[in-house]
Amino acid sequence: MPSRRRRNRVCRVLSCAGAASVGALLFFSGAQTIAPLSSRIGLGGGTWPQAQLQERLFPSPGMLLSPPPETLISLPRQTSEADLSFARRLLPNRRHSPPQLDEEHDQSPQFEEDAVLLPDREVLVLSANPAVGNAMCVFQGGESSPARALGRLPGPGRHAYLCPLPDSEQPLQPPPLLLSSSSYSSSAAPPAAPPATAPAPAADFRKLLNWKDSLVFDSALLQGGDLLLFAKGTNGRQGVINTATSNIQCIYNRGSDGMVASFPATTSAQQVIRCPPPPAPLNYGNLHVTVALNGQEPIPSLATYNPQNTGLSVTRERKLICACTMVRNVAKFLPEWVRYHAAVGVEKFFLYDNASEDDLADQVSSLNSAGIDISTVAWPWTKTQEAGLSHCAASNQPFCQWMAFIDVDEFIFSPNWNKVEKPSKSLLESVVSVDPEVGQIFLPCYDFGPSGQTAHPQEGVCQGYTCRLMRAERHKSLVRLDAVADSLVNSVHHFTLKPGFQKVWTTLARINHYKFQAWTEFKSKFKRRVSAFVADWTDPVNLQSHDRAPGLGVDPVEPVGWAESFCELKDKTMKELSERWFGIGFGGRGAITKFNSNGDIAPSPSLP
């Protein structure tokens, strides 16, 4: 960008900032000019003194005005390579200098690729543009691996790809290069990455991030302007131990002109931090966003902020009842679960896809074609189920009045529905017809056992599993989204509510939880519990957890008599009801249910 244009931009920004900007400048440097101020605060590579960082982001109480002004800084017009270190400190994984705005069109900059090392030696690569055709990752040592497309992330808006880290490659290295089939021919080898022994340029600060470390991994822009940041390493997962908001600073950085703003967070719990929006001078284009805790260095971040790149301005009809769930490799169970709940009153489904490897996309497409409204959200992050449900609750508050937070093996059901000849939306509508102060409805869960099945029942889970435990175990919830507390604290089973709202148990419905299925299906639970925060079942910890099967142990070996286990009461009410409503074999892979605009259904064909 020419120096005159940059100078004019800075002048415009300072004029727009008005008294707030002047107050911020006086707050930091008295009557000093902007260039010396910036040179002292934002620069120095890795040499920003801890005392200066504490003073700049967390000033002593005697220095604060009432209310505290935002921190608004402009980097000098002429910046050296070292002078760009503040932006690098906010996002130490960026490869090049902060991106510049387009000279003619003033468009938002495109961010460089980022990469995160996940468990099981998998690398998640984020790219601004989707790969064309097949894609692969090429690593520093010259090895390569296929890149599996996961979809576009909701907050950063970049496209996610998952690549196995080759055995010969070391985790501590620069991120791989993402190449599409358009970059190389099938008959020629892809270009090799620089050898591992090659010295890195002095200005190359980019590195492969590690999921084990602190990281801001996603974001969500809300109506009203607040920004949610989803971060590891800031709070305890269960929301008991949280960092005080006064010790958390939200930092916005526009790399195109070096503008930076920082504010105290407004809420902080579990993996969710709520930040106020940036001031008007920064409220356009893509911004990098991160947080700093307790006066420490800003933590690495993949999050962005762009108020123009959001669907909040789109007018949509607000649905009465929606459903949200985290999924991974459950495609064969999805049609039965979706068709059933659509028939009894769920109008919209949100699937948070935790890097599924099956034909989930095909199943979703088929169900959408049948008239069911389903959205899939790419959520590849390991053991972040609570954060994903928080994202779902906050992002969809404008579009849904009530949200059912249930899993794909859980079905909302009432024995009273057995008297109903045809399913209709009124069935669930009657459950949420409660007083306005009721913000959450608890549904008891009844766990079903294998019911003599030795393989996945051809007719589906509702008609195939007919024996359960006598007593209810745990609960799930229907949540009024307007009632959810700003902190978004949840235990997966329920949310914390705002003051003035109540939670109630209902006698109108329950959850049929098809938890203990045929061993061929159930043994998959021994694999790494990717979405949930519970321990992997092969680890000898939390052996008494309700998440585990009682007495199962840590080895994926079928116990003697498994097919007849967890059977205390024969319960065929759901089987009989679904056969009458949808036909025998309703849950089979070939069964199809069509829905018209009124929500009426046609019975699916019976299996032979």
Task: Label this structure with key terms.
608 residues; alpha+beta; nine-stranded mixed beta sheet; globular; disordered N terminus; disordered C terminus
Give a structural overview.
The chain has 608 residues and is α+β, with helices and mostly antiparallel strands. The chain is 17% helix and 23% strand. The protein has helices at residues 3-29, 34-41, 50-57, 85-90, 334-344, 360-369, 385-395, 426-431, 461-464, 519-522, 573-582, and strands spanning 71-73, 114-118, 122-127, 135-138, 144-152, 159-164, 177-180, 209-210, 215-221, 227-232, 248-254, 259-264, 267-269, 272-275, 287-293, 304-305, 319-327, 348-353, 374-378, 400-405, 410-413, 438-447, 467-468, 475-480, 502-505, 510-513, 569-570. The strands form 5 sheets. Strands 17, 18, 19, 20, 21, 22, 24, 25 and 26 form a 9-stranded mixed β-sheet that branches. Helix 5 runs parallel beside helix 6.
Helix content: 10-25%
Overall geometry? globular
Q: Calculate the mean pLDDT score and round it.
A: 75
Oligomeric composition of the shown chains: single chain
Overall number of strands: 27
Distance between the termini: 70 Å
Number of helices: 11
Beta-strand proportion: 15-25%
Low-confidence stretches at least 5 residues in length (pLDDT < 50)?
1-110, 193-205, 595-600, 602-608
What kind of sheet is the major sheet?
9 strands, mixed
Global Rg: 27 Å
- Alpha-beta classification: alpha+beta
